[in-house]
Amino acid sequence: MVRPQLAYGASSWHTPAASKAKGVTAKLQLIQNKYLRTIAGAYRATPIAILETETYTPPLDLYLDSRVAAFQKRLQGSPVYQQIQNACQVIVQQLKIKTQRRAQRKTSGEAREKWAAERHQQLGGTKTSSKTKVQRAWETRWNTLPRTTWD
Question: Is 26 a member of any domain?
Answer without folding.
Answer: yes
